[in-house]
Amino acid sequence: MKILITGGLGYIGSFLLDYLSDFEITVVDNIMFSQNYEKIIRNRFKFENVDVNDLEKMKKHYTSNDIIIPLAAIVGAPLCDKMPEVALNTNQKSIQAMSKILSKEQIVIMPVSNSGYGIGEKDSFCTEESPLNPISIYGKTKVNAEKYIMDRDNSVSLRLATVFGVNKKRMRNDLMVNNFTYTAFTKKKIDLFEPNFRRNFIHLSDVCEAFLYVIKNWINMKNEIYNLGLDEANITKKELCEILKFKIKGFEYNIIKNQKDPDQRDYFVSNDKIKNKGFKTKMSLDAGIDELINYYKSNSS
């Protein structure tokens, strides 16, 4: 079975490759972040330096693979705000174009973001049936991309919680758990805006396990949307800081009052649907934070 991974040199993609090594993999990436593709590919996978917005070059890849995992994206609200046109083209329009090219028999497994929920109700969890209310360019483009793939047969959408964890091939320190842990470890202080805003989190390894699980259980999983997060990691930003305070000596956080966080997302998420399909997460928030602390210790000098 042939699998195409776009954005395969990114934070998730480069980690996912090891989970799918039994398949024939083609990786497409525009090396936007100057990744060392030779170190990641290691002659184990086919690789081509192509931007997904170059539809003429992408057609051959879309038509010659059985499974498409479109990871190529401008990820996160801050980066999308800096380059809105590129975000619109990459996150949304390229997916629309891809959907028109693919045959009904081809499989698409696409990660989107649970940021599409925007601001959830205070006393309830967002499910896959909850109304979507994206409040950022990132969220809006991902919501629209999801519509394109779910309008076709043989698609699954994974609405990812905010991902955390160590990826030595392509580390990201801007994701909330990673960023808070890095800042707590290196600066011993965080200024916290709107501390009671809620989030859900998921470890990088569990994201990759979920992709593999969907592939192996396709008949039972197809044509559905699934939230993917850790139930235990439905927590507020203040609660995350309290965990870090326990783990990192000397760390303190300072709550800033009467100022808004630029990121206004606020929701808890139910992950029951994918659990009821048999998928179980393995990496806890606690263990993931320990992993991050050890990583930052080993890389501090």
Record the strand order, biggest sheet.
3-2-1-4-5-6-10
Question: Biggest β-sheet: count, sense, barrel?
Answer: 7 strands, parallel
Distance between the ends: 44 Å
The chain-level mean pLDDT equals 94
Number of H- or I-type helical stretches: 12
What sequence of helices (H) and strands (E) makes up the elements? Answer: EHEHEHEHHEHEEHEEHHEEHEHH
- Low-confidence stretches are none
- SSE-based structural type: alpha/beta
Helix content: 25-40%
Strand content: 15-25%
Overview of this protein structure:
It is a single chain. The protein has 301 residues and is α/β, with parallel strands linked by helices. It contains twelve helices and twelve strands. It has helices spanning 13-16, 37-41, 55-63, 77-82, 84-101, 137-150, 176-187, 204-216, 218-221, 237-247, 272-276, 285-298; strands at 2-6, 24-29, 46-49, 67-70, 107-113, 155-160, 162-164, 189-193, 198-203, 224-228, 234-236, 252-256. β2 (24-29), α2 (37-41) and β3 (46-49) form a beta-alpha-beta unit. The radius of gyration is 19 Å and the shape is globular. 42% of the residues are buried. The model has no long low-confidence stretch (mean pLDDT 94).
Layout: helices, strands, pairs:
Elements: E1 2-6, H1 13-16, E2 24-29, H2 37-41, E3 46-49, H3 55-63, E4 67-70, H4 77-82, H5 84-101, E5 107-113, H6 137-150, E6 155-160, E7 162-164, H7 176-187, E8 189-193, E9 198-203, H8 204-216, H9 218-221, E10 224-228, E11 234-236, H10 237-247, E12 252-256, H11 272-276, H12 285-298
Parallel strand pairs: 1-2, 1-4, 2-3, 4-5, 5-6, 6-10, 7-9, 8-12
Antiparallel strand pairs: 9-11
Helix pairs in contact: 3-5, 5-6, 7-10, 7-12
